[in-house]
Every structure is written in structure tokens, then in C-alpha cells.
């Protein structure tokens, strides 16, 4: 189970903002991706390794982040198809 500090107010605000459609593609740090996907860090990196999750972009020697569009596309692919009424 994730500890509460993984869900800082800044991470929650950034995740909410990332879900809003904009013309720019923001870079999301790991805590935000964890919050948005409800996946653990280890699950995210395991899925990246096997190609089931978008790979992060290296921003520096010890810094990576994910494109908002990649995460939104992944989330949309996981959503169940709606049944037309």
C-alpha cells in the first residue's frame, strides 16, 4: 500500500491539471504518474520494461518524466468500452 506522502497536494493538483486538455504536452514526474494511474513505482517500471506502459523521457542523469499525452493515451486504452444505449 502506498504511503500518504506519495499524494502530496502538489502532485494531486498537477495530476488534475494534466487531465485537462491543453495545447501543450507537459512533463509529469513519477509521483504524479503514480497518482494518476494508481500503479506503484515498481509496477510502472516493470511495465515500461516489457512495453506495456509508456517509457519516460530522460531529462538528466537522474531525472525522468512522462509526457502527459502518453499517460492520457494509456489511460484511455485501459478504459472499458462504453455500450451504446
What fraction strand?
A: 5-15%
What's the number of helices?
4
> How many E strands?
3
What is the oligomeric state here?
Answer: single chain
Which blocks of ≥5 consecutive residues have pLDDT under 50? none
Largest sheet: 3 strands, antiparallel
What pattern of helices and strands is seen along the backbone?
HEHHEEH
Mean pLDDT: 83
Radius of gyration: 14 Å
Helix content: 40-55%
Number of domains: 1
User: Termini distance?
Assistant: 38 Å
Strand order of the largest sheet: 1-3-2
Briefly note the structural class of the backbone. Answer: alpha+beta
Cα shape: globular
Give the structure's gist in a few sentences.
The protein has 85 residues and is of the alpha+beta class. The protein has four helices and three strands. The longest helix is centred in the C-terminal third of the chain and has 11 residues.
Note down, in words, how this protein is organized.
- There is one protein chain.
- This protein has one domain (4-78).
- Helix 1 crosses helix 2.
- The chain is built from four helices and three strands.
- The longest helix has 11 residues, at 68-78.
- The chain is α+β, with helices and mostly antiparallel strands.
Element layout with pairings:
Elements: H1 9-18, E1 27-28, H2 30-37, H3 41-50, E2 57-60, E3 63-67, H4 68-78
Summary keywords:
85 residues; alpha+beta; three-stranded antiparallel beta sheet; 3 strands
Amino acid at each position: 500500500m502506498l504511503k500518504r506522502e506519495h499524494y502530496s497536494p502538489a502532485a494531486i493538483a498537477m495530476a488534475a491539471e494534466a487531465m485537462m486538455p491543453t495545447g501543450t504536452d507537459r512533463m509529469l514526474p513519477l509521483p504524479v504518474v503514480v497518482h494518476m494511474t494508481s500503479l506503484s513505482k515498481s509496477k510502472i517500471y516493470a511495465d515500461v520494461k516489457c512495453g506495456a506502459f509508456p517509457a519516460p523521457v530522460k531529462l538528466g542523469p537522474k531525472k525522468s518524466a512522462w509526457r502527459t499525452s502518453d499517460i492520457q493515451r494509456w489511460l484511455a486504452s485501459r478504459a472499458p468500452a462504453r455500450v451504446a444505449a
